[in-house]
Amino acid sequence: MPVPREIDVALIRDTVAELCGQADLLLPEDVRRALERGMATEESPVGREVLARLIENADIARDESMPMCQDCGLAVIFLDIGQEVHLVGGDLIEAVNQGVRDGYERHYLRKSVCHPFTRQNTGDNTPAVVHISIVPGDKVHLWVVPKGGGSENMSKVFLLTPAMGLKGVKERVIETVEAAGPNPCPPIILGVAVGGTFDDACRRAKRALLRELGSVNPDPEAAALEAELLELVNRTGIGPAGLGGRITALGVFVDIRPCHIASLPLAVNVQCHAARHKEAVL
Amino acid sequence: MSQTIRLTTPLTSETLRELKSGDRVLLNGVVYTGRDAAHKRIVEAMEAGGQPPFPLEGAAIFYVGPSPAPPGRVIGAAGPTTSYRMDAYAPYLIAHGLKAMIGKGKRGEEVKAAMVRHGAVYLAAIGGAGALMARSITEAEVIAFPDLGPEAVRRLVVKDMPLFVVNDVHGGDLYQEGKAAYARG
């Protein structure tokens, strides 16, 4: 019998706290490069100005230790836990939530979580939303994804009929972007999951947002759909900040998997340009 | 042609008549913050015969819930939140003197009609540029509903806050016009 590798949940707590700060203060490099590429191709002068301001905003956030956006997000945490890991030292979910509490307090991040009806703020940005997968190996890979409300509100899930097919999928994605217009802080990034079930499609659409902008999808069918959707989205004219222009989206990430013979689930998770995600491997 | 106009609050319909959708505004003076929960409380109180927590005549409301001020700072990140959630309350406030709303994202038809009828404007700040926007805020003080935390009503003093005119008093709409100029069928 191999001996499981022990990891204390206190390490996960402290890592989550640190990544909350990094995520909200430091724009990922791939997003910065995508904004710079956008400036080179944007035809609208106002659009170029908006993109330049967003890069300036990221510089100010980094240099002055300010969150890049006041909406520091609801903390979504992905945990890929190696099956040879034994977690010790307490309750994993409580450790993650304590990490969120510590991180949001320490880094002066806005607490944006409340009761759905009374709207009473929970005061510490918990509870986090935690997605756990068990994977081979003896490591814990974790991602902190603070998700803003403005873009999340523009996200959609569709249970299409099989007859609607690929054409129906494309139409619904573009409809989602058109309906959102300027609201989700374009240029946006789309996480698009096709197949699976109602719940699985939503989770995969969120997870697709973890990919690096400019990376190539190993699934050629998904890669082709990503290129076509990006082209269609950037023909809408919505543009940076919705003020008109070419660069409506910085990227589209597609995840395709089989589904029930009766179904064609589609989830579209809309992400603003403040595409915050930081990761660590323990 | 779009122009850049420096404005100072309180605002009047006469001044705002000069603005056209697509113009840039550098806003100065006092601006009040308010978002979902504060709007609900303000309108409910006024409908019950009470007073708003700040004078509405000529006022500008910024739809923002700032992040906490780090030590030595006036305010944290302070970019706009999505405006349509305030659409249910905006026509009532416009009818009671509100002259400018600062946010991001589309407004409903009733809000646009109220702006034309009463001579008010909707100004967009760049969504997500919260650290940049904080630089134009020189003072911040909670004046109502402190229990709402980030949603409390604050009195801000702003200096050359950079904004775009989206909806003017003439019915112009930059979101529609800008999109139409760059859309490809």
Describe this structure in words.
The complex is a heterodimer of chains A (282) and B (185). Chain A is of the alpha/beta class and 282 residues long. Chain A has 8 helices and 10 strands. Chain A folds into 2 domains: 5-27 and 68-147, no CATH class; 150-274, 2-Layer Sandwich (60s Ribosomal Protein L30, Chain: A). The longest helix of chain A is centred in the first third of the chain and has 20 residues, at 45-64. Chain B has 185 residues and is an alpha/beta fold. Helices cover 25% and strands 26% of the residues of chain B. The longest helix of chain B has 12 residues, at 36-47. At the A-B interface, helix 3 of A face helix 5 and helix 6 of B.
Quick overview:
The complex is a heterodimer of chains A (282) and B (185). Chain A is of the alpha/beta class and 282 residues long.
Secondary structure: elements and pairs:
The complex is a heterodimer of chains A (282) and B (185).
Chain A: E1 5-8, H1 9-25, H2 29-41, H3 45-64, E2 74-82, E3 85-88, H4 92-106, E4 129-135, E5 140-147, H5 149-152, E6 156-160, H6 165-180, E7 188-196, H7 198-208, H8 220-233, E8 249-259, E9 264-271, E10 278-281
Parallel strand pairs in A: 1-3, 2-4, 7-8
Antiparallel strand pairs in A: 2-5, 5-10, 6-9, 7-9
Chain B: E1 4-8, H1 13-16, E2 24-33, H2 36-47, E3 60-62, H3 90-95, E4 100-103, H4 109-118, E5 121-124, H5 130-134, E6 137-144, E7 153-167, H6 174-182
